[in-house]
């Protein structure tokens, strides 16, 4: 309102202080001004119609009515989509490091490699002379010039839309080279046009008919966010290259993960990691599906594959082992989604599925077998003698109803149950409203819809059977027009949906948003929770919304009632949770409407009084419900935390229009009080 009055005053002043105006203009101006005042007045009246609503939220915190939320409730679904892995959390800077992006045939696709020099001075072509039997393509480079240009000729790789090279940081270069004659290779990190040199070394290569592995550290003297790796020489002759890798040395725990992206994952406090897809697991065609066996062992020996659903090549540096390592690093239970012999367009007949079943049993031995077992020994050789605790597997992704799903499912189910009786198996068939016709421990539930629908879906599991398998809401999100590129509106509907999952967490055991990541240069799927490029990242409102649910896993949930004529715009839940020192009664509430709400939070059945000291309110909102974050304004819609000095058994708060609030009421047995 103040803003509008300011507007009126300013415009009025503009009209009446212009000295060059004649009387006709002045009266016209007066009319226009009156009209303007009238319109703005109407707007003011209209906004006053957004009267403050009232509501009372009662929480019964009696222990006998409380129920523990599963430890596993909120986790992460990681899919290799939008370059989330290759060019994303996997810190490898070279794209198409083995020149295999066109597959095993030649000529292969060397994109994004390119030449330095012109066609008369350097000629490159792929051939199948690699020393690695599973990825035989190598790059043959012929230097044609006798007097090569200054700086030499050669090849460069711009990584994934430019390499982020940072001043003072060390990068590990590994490459395989073969040269029949002695040659000196200049290896440099430069700006995208080669003009700025950030790091450079000369590597001598002895003439030999064999391949040589070269390893070199490069220390950057300067920062450039869109750098490239270049390899040049002045010497006429032929050199072969294969498996060229450049890794920063500061990856998370030295495990190859991009630290700042892992940090954003950790802030979600994920209790599980579902991987590696999604449709990525299925493939458009079975020949392009993710195959765990091809993604383990020394990185140089992995063939890589073209993910034909999301349309890009991955060297599979982020393979099955790395996903297991990632789940360990996150402290999250691994959930291995495997291909069940079904892709988007072709299927293996159940009569022929046995080798696929054997393959999956091998994958489980790789994860869980002793370091002496056939596949466990491969894991141990990769650096992890201790087994990875795989307790959940999903038999396919979104394949329910396909011709061979049920038959294939049962083959996998029976074999896994026999070999690993403790593993929980997840069916693709939704049992939220009708029972399954096959055994399962959990069933997948996926939902992508508009915000109003998702808001109303907060009651989805209220009537689901409590007897059958548990629900795994493994993919949920608001999408299409309501979502923008990650709007506040989407996050509010999702928050409401999640309060419903918390309340139904006797049957809903797990939930994860999808997709988690997008490299801004390849947004195949919109929206996504975390947006990044080679050097920056930010969370969408949906990401921040999830951080307010991170403490719910394993917490106690309490029954609530909301009394309000506005209750159809509200969604809430109440939990008791603990951090390392204190206990809190947390009320989370979504105001999906455009009116402010004066809310009374009334608590009964508490075992300890509420302490105003240490009580806080955290609010996610913005002036426009379609507001988003961006690289230029990453904190436009983020939770804002403040003290709640009036916190008591009855607490009065105001909910902003279109907001998601989390009120943490400190409980007095906490150390905060003891220390007072
Ligand atoms: O999350 C994006 C895609 O949506 C997943 O790959 C698939 O499971 C779903 O259709």
What are the main properties of this structure?
676 residues; alpha+beta; Immunoglobulin-like; TIM Barrel; Jelly Rolls; eight-stranded parallel beta sheet; seven-stranded antiparallel beta sheet; 35 strands; 20% helix; disordered N terminus; disordered C terminus; binds alpha-L-arabinofuranose; hydrolase
Report the total helices: 12
Average pLDDT reading: 93
Structural class: alpha+beta
Approximate strand percentage: 25-35%
Structure overview:
The protein has three domains: 53-69 and 556-667, Golgi alpha-mannosidase II (Immunoglobulin-like, Sandwich), CATH 2.60.40.1180; 75-91 and 252-552, Glycosidases (TIM Barrel), CATH 3.20.20.80; 114-248, Jelly Rolls. Helix content is 20%, strand content 31%. It has twelve helices and 35 strands. Helix 1 runs antiparallel to helix 2, helix 6 (354-368) packs across helix 7 and helix 6 (354-368) packs parallel to helix 8. The model is unreliable at 1-26, 28-33, 35-48 and 670-676 (pLDDT under 50). The structure holds alpha-L-arabinofuranose. Alpha-L-arabinofuranose (AHR) binds next to loops. It is found in: Secreted, Extracellular space, Extracellular matrix. It catalyses: Hydrolysis of terminal non-reducing alpha-L-arabinofuranoside residues in alpha-L-arabinosides.
């Amino acid at each position: 309102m103040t803003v509008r009055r300011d507007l009126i005053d300013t415009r009025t002043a503009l009209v009446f202080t212009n000295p060059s105006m004649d009387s006709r203009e002045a009266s016209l101006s007066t009319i226009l001004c009156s009209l303007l005042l009238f319109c703005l007045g109407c707007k003011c009246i209209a906004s006053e119609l957004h009267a403050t609503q009232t509501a009372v939220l009662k929480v019964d915190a009696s222990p006998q009515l409380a129920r523990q939320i599963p430890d596993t409730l909120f986790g992460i679904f990681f899919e290799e989509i939008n370059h989330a892995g290759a060019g994303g959390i996997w810190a490898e800077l070279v794209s198409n490091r083995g020149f295999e992006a066109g597959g095993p045939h030649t000529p292969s696709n060397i994109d994004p490699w390119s030449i330095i020099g012109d066609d008369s001075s350097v000629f490159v072509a792929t051939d199948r002379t690699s020393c690695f039997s599973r990825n035989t393509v190598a790059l043959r480079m012929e230097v044609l010039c006798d007097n090569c240009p200054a700086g030499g000729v050669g090849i460069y790789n711009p990584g994934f839309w430019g390499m982020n090279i940072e001043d003072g940081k060390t990068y590990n270069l590994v490459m395989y080279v073969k040269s029949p004659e002695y040659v000196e290779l200049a290896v440099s990190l430069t700006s995208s046009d080669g003009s700025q040199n950030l790091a450079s070394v000369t590597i001598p290569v002895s003439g030999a008919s064999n391949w040589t592995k070269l390893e070199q550290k490069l220390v950057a003297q300067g920062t450039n966010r869109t750098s490239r790796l270049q390899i040049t020489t002045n010497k006429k002759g032929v050199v072969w290259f294969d498996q060229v890798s450049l890794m920063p040395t500061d990856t998370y725990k030295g495990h190859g993960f991009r630290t700042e992206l892992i940090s954003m994952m950790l802030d979600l406090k994920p209790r599980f990691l579902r991987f590696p897809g999604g449709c990525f697991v299925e493939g458009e065609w079975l020949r392009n599906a993710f195959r765990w066996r091809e993604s383990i062992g020394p990185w140089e020996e992995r063939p890589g594959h073209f993910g034909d659903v999301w349309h890009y090549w991955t060297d599979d540096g982020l393979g099955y082992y790395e996903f297991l390592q990632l789940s360990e690093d996150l402290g999250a239970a691994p959930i291995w989604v495997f291909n069940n012999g079904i892709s988007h367009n072709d299927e293996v007949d159940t009569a022929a599925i046995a080798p696929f079943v054997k393959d999956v049993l091998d994958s489980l031995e790789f994860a869980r077998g002793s370091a002496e077992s056939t596949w466990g020994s491969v894991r141990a050789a990769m650096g992890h003698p201790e087994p990875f605790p795989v307790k959940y597997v999903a038999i396919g992704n979104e394949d329910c109803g396909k011709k061979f799903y049920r038959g294939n499912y049962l083959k996998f189910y029976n074999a896994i149950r026999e070999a690993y009786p403790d593993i929980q198996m997840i069916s693709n068939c939704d049992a939220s409203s009708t029972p399954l016709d096959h055994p399962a421990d959990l069933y997948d539930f996926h939902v992508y819809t508009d915000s109003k629908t998702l808001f109303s879906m907060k009651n989805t599991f209220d009537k689901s059977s409590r007897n059958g398998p548990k629900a795994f809401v493994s993919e949920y999100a608001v999408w299409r027009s309501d979502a923008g590129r990650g709007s506040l509106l989407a996050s509010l509907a999702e928050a409401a949906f999640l309060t419903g999952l918390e309340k139904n967490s006797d049957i809903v055991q797990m939930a994860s948003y999808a997709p988690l990541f997008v490299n801004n240069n390849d947004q195949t799927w919109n929206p996504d929770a975390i947006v990044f490029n080679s050097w920056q990242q930010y969370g969408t409102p949906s990401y921040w919304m999830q951080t307010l649910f991170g403490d719910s896993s394993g917490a106690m949930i309490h029954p609530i009632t909301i009394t309000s004529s506005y209750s159809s715009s509200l969604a809430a839940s109440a939990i008791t949770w603990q951090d390392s020192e204190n206990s809190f009664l947390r009320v989370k509430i979504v105001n999906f409407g455009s009116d402010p709400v004066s809310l009374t939070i009334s608590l009964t059945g508490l075992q300890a009084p509420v302490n105003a000291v240490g009580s806080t309110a955290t609010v996610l909102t913005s002036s426009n419900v379609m507001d988003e974050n961006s690289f230029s304004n990453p904190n436009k819609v983020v939770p804002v935390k403040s003290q709640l000095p009036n916190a008591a058994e009855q607490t009065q708060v105001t909910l902003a229009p279109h907001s998601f609030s989390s009120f943490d009421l400190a409980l007095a047995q906490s150390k905060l009080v003891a220390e007072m």
